[in-house]
Predict the 3D structure of the following.
Amino acid sequence: MTNHHHFDFVIIGAGMGGSTIAYALKDSGASILVLERGAFLPQEAQNWDVKGVSRYRANEIWFDEHDQPMHPRVYYNVGGNTKVYGAAMLRYRVQDFEGIAYEEGKTIPWPISYEDLRPYYDEAERLLGVHGQAGEDPTEPPRGDFLLPPVPHEPVIEELAQKFRQQGLHPFHLPVAVDLGANGTCIRCQTCDGFPCQVQAKGDAETRLLRPALQSSSVTLWTNALVESLNTSADGKRVDNVEITYNGEKRQVTANLFILSAGAVNSPVLLLKSKNDKFPNGLANNSSGLVGRNYMAHNNSVIMAISPWRKNPTRFQKSLAFNDFYLPGPESNQPLGNVQMRGKILPDMLKKKKKLVLRSFSRFLAARSVDLWIMSEDLPNPDNRVWVDERGKVHLSRRPNNLKPHLELVKRTKEIMRKAGFPLIFAERRGIETISHQCGTLRFGNDPTTAVLDPWCRSFDLPNLFVVDTSFYPSSAAVNPALTLVAQALRVAAHIQENV
């Protein structure tokens, strides 16, 4: 290896986890290198173009358990998948940390409580610029007021919220990370959810975390830096170095501490590919054998609710949600999940659908639709996993579970929308290629035989390796995972500064 470099800390991945850690450690006095396999996304017209936005999706093929190819919705760039996420920032409920019973099984309790994360949730909302309104959602965990006011509903959505209330529901303003306000850059466009922000108004990892971190002379970013392997010391007791391809050139980087933040698929993939004599089944895998297992990504469906007689001119639609069926209640003995608005459906999106009616009447339907995202818990199952075959190909195996509550929530949402004046309903359940809420493949816990990481996201087998992305989640809950990742990353960073 001709090029050798040394840093105190090496962070692998510039998505939400890696960017948060870089930001939180920027004033620690340590030299920090962030390695990102992609580059910065350009600010260009295609950012907001339905046909052009696909250019940012990774040209990568994974395989399912039957060796059938799939094209996952994954993005390799600075900021990771957060460049195209909807920026919904919900805290996990208190019960999500404690374990929840379903007909098909119980979720795994977290080794930390909501109160352990509560101050870091506060800080995460501040850093990301989250707008919201406390006190509207009866399932909301204990918290103070939001620092920023809620994103106001546009007229059609405000009217929908009122119709929900008339049905006995408790709609609330969806907490969203956008730069909205008197001096903000957000223009409330129709191309936020699922698109990069051309004016950098979205609270994504690059804009709110990594760019501020790079203002420190202690933080260095290498883009187009693909990590090929993590290599351990001869005795197998620590990670010694990473081998990378940096702009086509082979390099080796040593460090005192390594923080893996490549995502709940690619983090275990890297560990599995890095196997050696001391770790024949992949790094960090000797104690538990769980590296890559218990993959979760939520049960997700989308609903288009249409009133043929009325157009919906809403531009920024993602401002409303309800959690009335999130916890067990009088009408259900088990939780069903979360319902929230999604970004506005546009005609060109419908032209790709299988249903002829959607393709044929795309402009008419898109102009009149109100669009919702239905999300339910995905239960941990060791057979739902990520692995690498002898060819080095990535496999993702996921057999859906907990579908009964999800389908019940879809059914109830359809009924609610019909009562609200939308008689025409189209529903679609998302498949395995939708990995935007991926989690669970490197579970944290108190017992090294049942978890890969300790409660500080530190490897039980390799003490100088931390993993800070959604792979540490022991359960998926049924709300968006990003805010909880940022909160735990801030908690881990504080622990590193105080103890490592």
Q: What stands out?
A: The chain has a mean pLDDT of 96.
